[in-house]
Every structure is written in C-alpha cells, then in structure tokens.
Amino acid sequence: MAQFKPRSRFAAVSGRPKLRMSKPDWVRIERAYGHLLATSVRRKIRGVTREYLDWVDFERNAATMSETTARVHTIKKAASKFRETIFQRPPKTGREADYYARSLICKHMGLPFEGRDGLQNLVLKIEREIAKGCEGALAELRKESGFGHGEMWELWVRKLSSILKRSQLPIHVRKDTDKAKVAKPSAFVAFMRELQACVPKAYRKSQARTSDFQANIALSTAIIRARANRVTNASPMAAE
C-alpha cells in the first residue's frame, strides 16, 4: 500500500478551481440520490463544496514535512559553516594575512574590537540567532501533523453527511461485502458520485463512470474511511 508523507499547512496556491452547479446538475443529483433537496440544503451543500475546492489545492501543493525539516537543517548547517569560515584560518593562508583581511573588513564595516575582532563577534551573534530560530522551527514542525493525504476530501464528505443527516436525509453507506445483495449503491454514494461530477476531475476521488454497485465500490469504501477518520490538527475547514 502506498505511503503518503504528511504535508505542512503552508502552501502557495494561485487561481481558484471552478464549481459548476446548474439547475440540471441539481436535478441529476436528486434523481440519483432519490430525494429532493430543499433550497436551504442546496445552499449548504454548495457552500461546503466551494470550501473544499478553496482549500484542497493547499493540501495538494503543500511542501512535505520532511522537505521542510531538511531545509531548516540545511540553513542551520550553513550558518555553522559560515562561522567556521570566519574563525578558522585556511591552511595555506598565513596568520598575518588572515588578521589583516579581517581587520580591513572590520574597518570598512565599522565593527569595533571587543575581546575579539568585530567580524568574529558579528558572525557569532548571527550564527547563534539562526541556530535558535532553527531549533524553534524544528520544535514546531515536530508538533505539527500537517495536511494528511486526502484530508480535505474526507472532511468534505463528513460535512456533507452532517448536512444531510440534520435534514433527516439518508447517509447510510453499504460496505462492499454487501455487493451480492444489491444492484445499486447506497443513496449517499450515488449523491457523492453525481456531486463530484460538478467539480473539476482533478478534485474527484474514486469516481465511478456508471451507477451500478460494482463500479461504485471504491467510492463507497472511500466514504466509509472518510467517516472513520478524524483530523487531529486544527484544519482550515475547521468545524464539521
């Protein structure tokens, strides 16, 4: 089974995925679902779907936690290397040349001698501050679980389930072990299939091309998994 790295909650996203939900789309969704949806329910469904599309790209484009952690370590090491470059005289450079080079630099930077030359003091201060900042960043990264793979889609499913349940509409989903007993998927699975058809293909999950139960098993399984999962970190889509 594929392993997915946690993703940080910082990401750069440009543009906004389009959401197409026309009157014919609602007719198609209601026909598949087998229930009419009141205007207020439609409004809520559209709202959480728009919210899903607004946030899902942040999940898709976020830097992986491992990449972020590695970058912080690289910066910390670079600061340490910079300090070593100033403090350690190269083997082929004489003491006088090393001292004179640093003295000239201090002169033109206006750095006074305070126990050691000003350049060394400045480098020590910079290196310590960078190291402190890096340690803080690493500590924060260890606490942050980041975006989980498919987290926004799962949260979308749970919010839709909640909306329909509060309106006393069916949300039950049969498991694939029941496949021999029925010809069609559960009403909520049909609802999700037709609703997903309103969002760009890149943002759909386990989308079936036909309405028979067999073709919708993957979507049914994904919905069951989404309901079982819970986001441990505060999510941008927040309350369910």
Descriptive terms for the model:
240 residues; mainly alpha; 2 domains; rod-shaped
Tell me the β content.
Answer: under 5%
Order of helices and strands: HHHHHHHH
How many domains is the backbone divided into? 2
Number of helices: 8
- Number of E-state strands: 0
Label the structural class. mainly alpha
Q: Sum up the overall morphology in one term.
A: rod-shaped
Parts with pLDDT < 50 across at least 5 consecutive residues? none
Question: Whole-number radius of gyration?
Answer: 28 Å
Mean pLDDT: 86
Tell me about the largest β-sheet: none
Distance between the termini: 29 Å
Structural features, described:
By secondary structure, the protein is mainly α. It folds into 2 domains: 23-62 and 148-228, no CATH class; 65-143. Helices cover 57% and strands 0% of the residues. The chain has 8 helices and no strands. The relative contact order is 0.16.
Task: Give a topology summary.
Blueprint: H1 23-33, H2 39-61, H3 65-87, H4 95-109, H5 118-143, H6 151-166, H7 187-196, H8 217-228
Helix pairs in contact: 1-7, 2-6, 3-5, 6-8
In short:
This protein has helices at 23-33, 39-61, 65-87, 95-109, 118-143, 151-166, 187-196, 217-228. The chain has 240 residues and is mainly alpha-helical.
